């Protein structure tokens, strides 16, 4: 099963935090962040990630990191823009290969009237200065599909059963032959229900 490394830079809209070794990954997505690359203490990544040959999609802050890695300059505007906006995209790009070139997007940036996206088709490096992962970006799911299935040539063959196997494997490794005291929290109860057939509970 192919894996995608998601580098969490502090995404406002992120629902999970996933860290995967890059040598087993087929692509990298760098999340957004409430910070800018000029912010003291902001998350950074090794710029060599853009030279390793893997496709990379930088979302918002991730695009800023990519831009900076190649000598681009980030400047801060006078005010921050948040909300839903309409942008015009070049549909000849494999990332924006959609039936329409006008997108409603969720915008969260410190500047306006600048680049909404960047890309290098030969290196398969792309960045967007908006949030395609948010439901209020109608074509966002299509943009992510274009990246994962079109640009990265991945297949959507992941099943819930695959996730169950991974969860049970993690539980087995953590528990081993030991007895475990389980709290009444939702995460613990869910873990118990997942692994009930695999362990003896007292």
UniProtKB/TrEMBL annotation:
The species this protein was found in? Fasciolopsis buskii
Which keywords fit this entry according to its UniProt record?
Answer: ATP-binding, GMP biosynthesis, Ligase, Nucleotide-binding, Purine biosynthesis
Q: Which residues form the Glutamine amidotransferase domain?
A: 25-91, 114-149
Its domain of life? Eukaryota
Q: A single GO molecular function, which one?
A: ATP binding
Q: Which PANTHER family does this UniProt record tie to the protein? A: GMP SYNTHASE [GLUTAMINE-HYDROLYZING], GMP SYNTHASE-RELATED
Q: What InterPro entries does this protein's entry cite?
A: Class_I_gatase-like, GATASE
Q: What does the entry list under GO cellular component? A: cytosol
One Pfam annotation reads: GATase
From the Swiss-Prot or TrEMBL record, give the protein name: GMP synthase (Glutamine hydrolyzing)
Q: Does the keyword ATP-binding apply?
A: yes
């Amino acid at each position: 099963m192919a894996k995608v490394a998601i580098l969490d830079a502090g995404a406002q809209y992120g629902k999970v935090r996933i860290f995967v070794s890059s040598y087993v990954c087929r692509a990298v997505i760098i999340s957004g962040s409430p910070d800018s690359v000029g912010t003291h203490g902001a998350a950074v990544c090794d710029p060599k990630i853009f030279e390793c040959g893997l496709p990379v999609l930088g979302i918002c802050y991730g695009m800023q990191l990519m831009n900076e890695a190649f000598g681009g300059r980030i400047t801060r505007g006078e005010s921050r823009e948040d909300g839903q906006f309409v942008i015009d995209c070049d549909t000849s790009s494999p990332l924006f290969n959609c039936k329409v070139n006008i997108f409603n997007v969720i915008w969260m940036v410190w500047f306006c009237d600048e680049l909404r996206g960047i890309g290098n088709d030969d290196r398969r490096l792309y960045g967007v200065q908006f949030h395609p992962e948010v439901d209020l970006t109608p074509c966002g799911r299509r943009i992510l599909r274009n990246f994962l299935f079109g640009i990265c040539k991945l297949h959507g063959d992941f099943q819930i059963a695959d996730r169950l196997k991974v969860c049970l494997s993690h539980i087995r490794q953590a528990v081993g032959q030991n007895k475990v005291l389980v709290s009444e929290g939702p995460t613990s109860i869910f873990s118990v229900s997942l692994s009930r057939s695999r362990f003896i509970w007292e």
